[in-house]
Amino acid sequence: MRIGVLTGGGDCPGLNAVIRAVVRKGVATYDHEFVGFRDGWRGPLEGLTKPLGIPEVRGILPRGGTILGSSRTNPFKIEGGVEQIKNNLAAQGVDALVAIGGEDTLGVATKLHELGVQVVGVPKTIDNDLGATDYTFGFDTAVNIAMEAIDRLHTTAESHHRTLVVEVMGRHAGWIALHAGLAGGANVILLPERQFDVDQVATYVEKRFQKQYAPIVVVAEGAQPLDGQMVLHNQELDAFGHVRLGGIGQWLAEQLEAKTGKEARTVVLGHIQRGGTPTAFDRVLATRLGLQAIDAVNEGDWGKMVAMQGTDIVRVPLAEATRELKTVPLERYTEAEVFFGS
Ligand code: F6P
C-alpha cells in the first residue's frame, strides 16, 4: 500500500515519534510505501507532499514539533474541499491515510471515513481532552514543563512576598492545570470545569501569606469566575469555530492584588508547554500508538482510532473519540482542594 501521513491542529511533543513508528514498522514489517502530507489537512487539500521513508524518520524520536508541519485547516469549510482531497489522494496513488491529531483533525477524519476515505486516526493533544483514550501523548510533557516552571516560581515568589498567578493551556479542560498544580504544590488550582469565586481565591492567598509562604495560583486558560464572562484576548474564531483563549491570569492577578493589598504578577506559560523534546512517557505512548496504527492500516481496519486504555493500546471507532470532551471529574478536583490555602 501507499500510505499518506499527516499531523493537524496544535503541535505537541511526540508527533515525530508516531510518524517514525508508523514508517519504521510499515516499511520493515509490511513493505508499505509512505508519503508525507504537509501542514495538516492543507496537504491533501492542496496536494502538498513531502518524501517520507526510513531516511526521513531517522533521528526524529526526541524532536518536538512535527517534521510534516501542521495547520488548523478545515476542508469542510472549503467549497469542494472533500472532492479536492479525494482527487489529490488518487493523483498521489495514496490508498490510505494516517491522520494524527486532536478533536478537530480527527473530526475531519471521521467525516472523510464516512465519505469513503480509508483512514486511521491517532490521538494527540497536550490538553488530554479526547474521549476513548485515557491519555494523549504531549500531555505528560506539557505537565512536566509547567511543573518545572511552578517549582522555579515558588522560590522567586517567596523572595518577594508576592502572589504568582500561572496561566496554563488546556482549552476547555483543566487536566494540565490540575496535574501541574498538584505536582508543583500550587496553593490554588482553578479549572474550566468549575467556576471560581474570586473572593474565596483571595482568602486562600491571604491564608498562605499568614503562614509566611508566597502563594502560587495555577489557572487554566479556560477557567471562569463565578459571575463573569470568560476573559478573552479577542473574539476571533479559527476554522473549527474555536475562540482563542488567554487573559484570565492577568485579570485574576489584578483582582488578587486589589483584594489582598499584596503584589500579584502573572506568568503565561503559553506555547512553551508545547515545545521541545517529549518525556519518556510520551515517546513510549506515541511509539506504541504509531505501531498499532500501522497494524490497523495493514488490516484495513478503517475508521478506527488507536487509543490507550489502562496500559493497553486498543482500537475504537473514530467517532467515539470526538463525541464528547473528556473533562476533569469533580472528584479529582475535590481531591486537590485539600491543599488550597494551606
Ligand atoms: O489544543 C492545544 C492548545 O495548545 C490549547 O491548549 C490552546 O488553547 C491552543 O492549542 C492554542 O492554539 P494556538 O497554538 O493555535 O494558539
UniProtKB/TrEMBL annotation:
InterPro entries: ATP_PFK, ATP_PFK_prok-type, Phosphofructokinase_CS, Phosphofructokinase_dom, Phosphofructokinase_III, PKF_sf. It is found in: Cytoplasm. Non-allosteric. The active site is at D127. NCBIfam families: PFK_mixed (TIGR02483), PRK03202.1 (NF002872). Residues 2-297 form the Phosphofructokinase domain. Substrate binds at T125, I126, D127, R162, M169, G170, R171, E221, R265, H271, I272, Q273, R274. It comes from Plantactinospora endophytica. Its EC number is 2.7.1.90. The record marks K124 as: Important for catalytic activity. PANTHER family: ATP-DEPENDENT 6-PHOSPHOFRUCTOKINASE 3, PHOSPHOFRUCTOKINASE. It catalyses: beta-D-fructose 6-phosphate + diphosphate = beta-D-fructose 1,6-bisphosphate + phosphate + H(+). Keywords: Cytoplasm, Glycolysis, Kinase, Magnesium, Metal-binding, Transferase. The lineage of its organism: Bacteria, Bacillati, Actinomycetota, Actinomycetes, Micromonosporales. Belongs to the phosphofructokinase type A (PFKA) family. Mixed-substrate PFK group III subfamily. This is Pyrophosphate--fructose 6-phosphate 1-phosphotransferase. Catalyzes the phosphorylation of D-fructose 6-phosphate, the first committing step of glycolysis. Uses inorganic phosphate (PPi) as phosphoryl donor instead of ATP like common ATP-dependent phosphofructokinases (ATP-PFKs), which renders the reaction reversible, and can thus function both in glycolysis and gluconeogenesis. Consistently, PPi-PFK can replace the enzymes of both the forward (ATP-PFK) and reverse (fructose-bisphosphatase (FBPase)) reactions. Homodimer or homotetramer. Mg(2+) binds at E103. Its main location: cytoplasm. The keyword Metal-binding applies. The gene is pfk. The keyword Kinase applies. It comes from the Bacteria.
